[in-house]
Specification:
This protein is α/β, with parallel strands linked by helices. The protein has one domain: Glycosidases (TIM Barrel), CATH 3.20.20.80. The protein contains 16 helices and twelve strands. It has helices at 15-18, 31-37, 54-68, 79-82, 92-108, 123-126, 134-150, 164-174, 185-209, 242-253, 264-273, 281-289, 292-298, 340-353, 379-397, 440-450, and strands at 8-12, 72-76, 111-117, 157-162, 215-220, 225-227, 304-308, 313-315, 357-361, 402-408, 427-430, 435-438. The strands form three sheets. An eight-stranded parallel barrel has the order 1-2-3-4-5-7-9-10, surrounded by six helices. The chain has a two-stranded parallel ribbon with strand order 6-8. α7 (134-150) runs parallel beside α9 and α8 (164-174) runs antiparallel to α9. The longest helix has 25 residues, at 185-209. The chain is globular and about 55 Å long. Bound molecules: 1-deoxynojirimycin. Residues 14, 17, 162-163, 308, 361, 408, 415, 424 line the site of 1-deoxynojirimycin (NOJ).
């Protein structure tokens, strides 16, 4: 068996990370504009004011998409570009920008895959409390149905929220992302609840606003564990015993003491199984207060789970973390290279939730640069992708319904609090000139797509 013939092969981006034009053509400010403009938040004092200038250069990027043979492109809509104060008055020029992207993609035969919320909350809504305020959920539902109606018949696949674990955990918990708040566990749980009501409410409103059927999901990230025998060697020999697999499944969904927000469990248990995990007092309290109508909204059926997967944690047969030996392979961001989490992540999420899956992000940051010959030679990214795609194929071969793979990212871009130092793209961006150069990995990925994922296995 191999990947299905209509497998989605794509790459992704997010509005704030690539668009720039932060205050052009009627766009409202977002929390990321405010956060990056206030000193001390972003490495080197960088901002997304210009980023990869995709607001002006999107045609060039779409041409590259075609050249690489992607059959889908994931991008996000900037909420404040379309609704400058978050609700009410629509900015027609903002909508026109996304019309341009969608129409061009369709003309090229590339499926648009739209994320509604990739972290750039309208600042006007943050000034009313942001996700602490339940009214933000109502505004999101209004925004989501506007988009579904406007793109009816043209956009059929949506992600409501990208990584609630990160924009809530980092934005409202540790404060290292916008809007930079450090809320208590109890307050954070309220924000989570508002986001999930927004998610469920938006799905229902979007289906009602669109005459054509939609496929809607969300993009989740969090702890993934995988079993290893003895110690985690550079090769990460897997331990195949049943108990070890059960132990890694249990460890995957168990709360992490010091990093509880980085977990698939609360997000997917609540939206798919219809309950928050009982592992924290704050969630127990919330479960006690849920009304029938809230439960219905949380559980609004979605069509797929988007999985953003970068690395995982090796565990032993008892589910205890196994230390990685010194010199373990790592990316430029020092994230460990652990391809097994791709296979086990898909397997465990399917086992627990039973929904089709799409890899909505996977990739690595490299210290890319232009070589003397003018090329960008990123052998380490190619090796990373080959390893993770092998594990993806292993899952597909076992019959796990995984319907697509999006490389993160299409072009280099603004990596949040790390600024421009971190490069994730298949396409290099020289920020001084905005010239794009397809990296070796871009060409490699093009060949993988051409063979529907077969090249790396011979
Ligand atoms: C998660 C986020 O969705 C994306 O915005 C970010 O750039 C990548 N992962 C890499 O950190």
């Amino acid at each position: 068996m191999t990947f299905q013939s209509d497998f989605l092969w794509g790459a992704g981006s997010a509005a704030y990370q690539v668009e720039g034009a932060w205050n052009e053509d009627g766009k409202g400010a977002s929390i990321w504009d405010a956060f990056s403009h206030s000193p001390g938040h972003i490495r080197n004092g960088e901002t997304g004011d210009t980023a990869a200038d995709a607001y002006h250069l999107f045609e060039a990027d779409l041409t590259i998409i075609k050249e690489l043979g992607l059959n889908t492109y994931r991008f996000s809509i900037s909420w404040p570009r379309v609704l400058p104060t978050g609700r009410g008055l629509v900015n027609e020029k903002g909508l026109a920008y996304y019309d341009g992207i969608v129409n061009r993609l369709l003309a090229l035969g590339v499926t648009p895959f739209v994320t509604l919320y990739h972290w750039d909350l309208p600042l006007a809504l943050e000034e009313e409390g942001g996700w602490e305020n339940r009214k933000t959920a109502e505004a999101f539902i209004e925004y989501a149905s506007l988009i579904a109606q406007h793109f009816d018949g043209r956009v059929k696949r949506y992600i409501t929220f990208n990584e609630p674990q990160c924009f809530l955990g980092l934005g409202y918990g540790s404060g290292i992302h916008a809007p930079g708040k450090k809320l208590s566990e109890q307050e954070l749980v309220q924000c989570i609840h508002h986001v999930l009501l927004a998610h469920g409410g938006a799905i229902a409103a979007m289906r009602a606003a669109s005459a054509s059927p939609l496929e809607i999901g969300l993009a989740s990230t969090g702890k993934l564990c995988y079993p290893v025998l003895g110690g985690a060697t550079a090769r990460n020999l897997e331990y195949d015993g049943r108990s070890a697999q059960q132990a890694s499944y249990d460890a995957t969904f168990a709360p992490e003491e010091n990093d509880w927000t980085f977990s698939h469990t609360w997000l997917l248990d609540a939206t798919i199984l219809g309950r928050y995990p009982e592992s924290f007092a704050a969630f127990r309290l919330l479960n006690d207060t849920l009304t029938e109508s809230e439960l219905r909204i949380l559980r609004e059926p979605m069509d797929f789970i988007g999985l953003n997967v970068y690395n995982g944690i090796p565990v032993d047969a008892k589910g205890n973390k196994v230390n990685k030996p010194p010199g373990f392979p790592r990316t430029a961001l020092k994230w460990p290279v652990t391809p097994e989490c791709m296979y086990y992540g898909l397997r465990f999420l399917y086992q627990r939730y039973g929904l089709p899956l799409i890899i909505t992000e996977n990739g690595q940051s490299c210290n890319d640069r232009i070589f003397l010959d003018g090329g960008v030679h990123d052998a380490d990214r190619i090796d990373f992708l080959a390893r993770y795609l092998q594990q993806l194929r292993r899952a597909a071969d076992e019959g796990i319904p995984v319907n697509g793979y999006f490389h993160w990212s299409l072009t280099d871009n603004f990596e949040w609090n790390c600024g421009y130092d971190e490069r994730f793209g298949l396409v290099y961006v020289d920020y001084a000139t905005q010239i794009r150069i397809i990296k070796d990995s871009g060409y490699w990925y093009r060949d993988i797509i051409k063979n529907n994922g077969n090249a790396h296995n011979g």
